[in-house]
Amino acid sequence: MNENGTFLFEVDGSSFSPQNPLIIAELGTSHNADIARAREMTDAAAEAGARCVKFQMVFADEIIHPNTGEVPLPGGRIRLYDRFKALEAPVEFYSEIKKYAESRGLLFLCTPFGLKSASILREICPKFVKIASPELNFTGLLEEIAGWKLPALLSSGVSRLGDIEEAVSILKPETELCLLHCVTSYPAPETDYNLKLLPNLAAIFGVPIGVSDHSADPCLVPALAVSMGAAVIEKHFCLSRTDPGLDDPIALPPEDFSQMVKAVRAAAEAGPQETIALYSRERTEELVLKILGNGVKELAPSEKDNYRLTNRSIHALRDIQKGEILKKSDYAVLRTEKILRPGLEPRWEKALEGRAARNFIPAGDGIRFDDI
Questions:
Q1: Which end of the chain is more exposed for a tag (fewer CB within 10 A), N or C?
Q2: Bridge partners for 77 per DSSP
């Protein structure tokens, strides 16, 4: 905690706070597994003022089931599983881009989505790690990362206070943890952000806080988040919103990202009162008050319908016949997403082996208490 009474987030000898926020450019998978493009994006993010570049280590099999449904893309509808499959990069890609980012003086950050990607990530010795919102309830992954004893960012989109409490209890006290408030909607309305929640989360969990922002405006949520105590600001980054990356339509191109960086730094220097007054004059007091919200942790209107669908649950990997005895290879902790039904919370995973199926369970569907 610093002299202003706010929690510090410390990574690799650097301390970040609302007076010196860590600004993360989320490159995700927009590089399309092309190392030259990833370097180009890293260069552009550095020039736009990012202190850190973040990637996603995607292996489709540890995220969703092939039967999870389709997504509309410019070229037509495609299975979401196939879209994730196309985003897979060779293992060497991540070690190469880590070295390149660090050669540019940037922090390298990456999100694993399961135990396979976590194992690979750990081998390249990251300085810290990010857990995405859908994996906040992935007990096995949280337990694995807690064992690393590295600083970690935990996004809290599409979650309730009890979900966050359970995740934090697994990660602490081994992990230097920063909790990122997030709204899991693409793009998320600025007025869904309820930024007065930030100091409340810091007080409840005793950790530094930040924002992973999916809203369209470059400045509103990031600057006001800093005024509410954010030590970390994460925003999707792209070279152009017309690029084919999965998140490019809601990401900031370099000129907009640079504008955001300036707004965040100005808010950090000006302090809460001046920042709120400035945006109240420029963008109306009514809008600012809506963005600040009431400080109560609730599912945001734009993400309510995704609860238990975006999150992880236990799904059948194959058709399971009535009466069959379940083996570990018959099920996995996956996101439910589009058309499948959700199953049991991941914390029940270890209790399923050896149980008999009471009903027929189609491949992909969630396994429920009624099924065993």
A1: N
A2: 72
> Which uninterrupted H or E stretch holds 93?
helix 91-103
Beta strands in 187-323 (DSSP E): 209-213, 232-236, 312-316
For the stretch 23-69, pLDDT in tens is: 999 999 999 999 999 999 999 999 999 999 999 999 999 999 999 99
Burial degree of 356 (CB within 10 A; 0-12, 13-18, 19+): exposed
Identify the DSSP state of 328: G
- Provide the 3-class DSSP secondary structure of residue 302: coil
Cα dihedral 312, 314, 315, 317, rounded to 10, equals 110
Instruction: Tell me which fold the domain 9-292 belongs to.
Output: TIM Barrel (3.20.20)
Considering the segment(s) 308-371 as one domain, its CATH architecture is: Alpha-Beta Complex (3.90)
Render pLDDT for 6-35 as a digit per residue (tens, 0 to 9).
789 999 999 999 999 999 999 999 999 999
Tokens encoding 61: 């099999």
